[in-house]
Write a structure and sequence with these properties.
Largest sheet: none
CATH class: Mainly Alpha
Number of helices: 7
CATH superfamily: Ferritin, core subunit, four-helix bundle
Helix content: over 70%
Distance between the termini: 67 Å
Number of strands: 0
Shape: elongated
Radius of gyration: 18 Å
CATH architecture: Up-down Bundle
């Protein structure tokens, strides 16, 4: 039971982190003018709702039944953030001439969001290393991978907003031959 007590506390912390993240993404999306930044931040805010629901589900299971429940079943149909965000980037590429240049607010929001996601990665990695329950390990591994993907999406979006031409050359893997 002591491990579950620690996990209940960790899940409360995780829940607060995800709620804070959602609030940040919503506020940041309301402040930025760049359509790609606004859409990405709103998408991340919605994604945090998925995390909040999962955390609440497992918190309730641990508290009421003293076990995690079927974590594998609960996460098996969860899509990958990277797969879902491809649509956002595809549309941005199609509208590159229409996109307004990123404002400092958008770039700053991305920097802050990357820091936030990096802290979440560290938190879930720490929990993954501590937990001994196999279902707890599956849950923390899943959340760790989700947050890592969020970080990569934010980093990729930041690089895109900062310099779309360079981003395209890096993503396309263009090689420049010096001769």
């Amino acid at each position: 039971m002591s491990e579950h007590k620690e996990d209940l506390e960790a899940l409360q912390t995780a829940l607060q982190m995800e709620q804070d993240g959602r609030e940040f993404y919503q506020k940041a999306a309301a402040r930025v003018h760049n359509p790609l930044a606004k859409r990405t931040l709103n998408w991340l805010a919605d994604w945090e709702l998925e995390h909040i629901a999962l955390i609440k589900k497992f918190y309730t299971s641990l508290k009421e039944a003293d076990h995690w429940g079927d974590v594998r079943e609960a996460i098996k149909d969860e899509p990958s953030p990277k797969q879902e965000v491809k649509t956002i980037f595809k549309e941005a590429q199609e509208q590159i001439d229409e996109l307004v240049k990123p404002d400092d607010e958008a770039l700053e929001a991305y920097k802050t969001a990357r820091d936030f996601e990096n802290k979440a990665v560290q938190f879930y990695q720490e929990r993954l290393n501590k937990v001994t329950d196999p279902d707890g390990k599956v849950f923390y591994q899943f959340m760790l991978e989700q947050e890592q993907e969020h970080y990569e999406i934010l980093d990729n979006s930041y690089r895109y907003l900062e310099n779309p031409e360079l981003w395209h050359s890096e993503e396309e893997g263009w090689m420049f031959d010096g001769g």
